[in-house]
Amino acid sequence: xxxxxxxxxxxxxxxxxxxxxxxxxxxxxxxxxxxxxxxxxxxxxxxxxxxxxxxxxxxxxxxxxxxxxxxxxxxxxxxxxxxxxxxxxxxxxxxxxxxxxxxxxxxxxxxxxxxxxxxxxxxxxxxxxxxxxxxxxxxxxxxxxxxxxxxxxxxxxxxxxxxxxxxxxxxxxxxxxxxxxxxxxxxxxxxxxxxxxxxxxxxxxxxxxxxxxxxxxxxxxxxxxxxxxxxxx
Length: 233
Hints:
Largest sheet: 5 strands, parallel
CATH architecture: 3-Layer(aba) Sandwich
CATH class: Alpha Beta
Mean pLDDT: 93
Oligomer: single chain
Number of strands: 5
Order of helices and strands: EHEHEHHEHHEHH
CATH topology: Rossmann fold
CATH superfamily: HUPs
Strand order of the largest sheet: 3-2-1-4-5
Shape: globular
């Protein structure tokens, strides 16, 4: 039987959810990996559990690693500095929500897991078009990590490389949402807000980019918001 195992990073957010459904459509045996890394709330982790169940993951690991020991991100403190920002400014500077080396840490752990289960690939929902300016979401970053992957493991030395798949990296948020809609992604089970209350705030970078994508795709966002930007109404 052909090996179709893949490790899929699922955060509970919109992008990772669509990425997981792309892997599902390609009939992979999905081994889901979610990180509890010291973020202020666990709502996105609960969403990740639902998504993992929806795609019939073979296994779902919640990997605990406390990056808050280092600090360096407002995702740990909840003291966000980016509210009431014009959406056109998003991505021009690296925001306070950036977590130092987060994707490098996550992909390294995913690579170790993929070697143990002999997975052929790792799926990650990074995006460099409509995003907040994180340096570890760019195509050159994924290319560099792939180069590392090709020489970093016993499996790769034996000629069995693990491929990093980032199918959303050059898509706009609207294109991602349309792709997810066509794949019947349950957007109501996803969480993008930097806060973990009952409703999304509608003010943080992540909420603004999500709302922009739904508006441009002419698809209704099924989650509830505390408020909406003027341009969305």
